[in-house]
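Recall that a protein's primary structure is simply its ordered list of amino acids. Everything else, from secondary elements to tertiary packing, is in principle encoded there. The following example makes that idea concrete.
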Amino acid sequence: MEIIPIGERVLIKPIKKEEVTKSGIYIPESARETRKEGAVIAVGKRDDGTNLPLKPGDHVLYGGYSSDTFEIDSETYVFVPFKDILAKIE
């Protein structure tokens, strides 16, 4: 199944934060990093039909409160408006 975002939206697979250190110590939720990172799965287009400056496979930081989370085949994905993409990590 292929999911194609409509409009200026980006489909992201969030990168799960480590809950345990290499030595086996559990990291509490409050001590984990709060930034949101993920891998781009699919990208929509601008209203005028031009491409957004991202492509599948890009690693991004994103923020905002208007993302929609859903699950397919026990994998979690997030739709994020393009304006909430903070940076591309290279």
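The chain has a mean pLDDT of 85. The chain has no helices and six strands.
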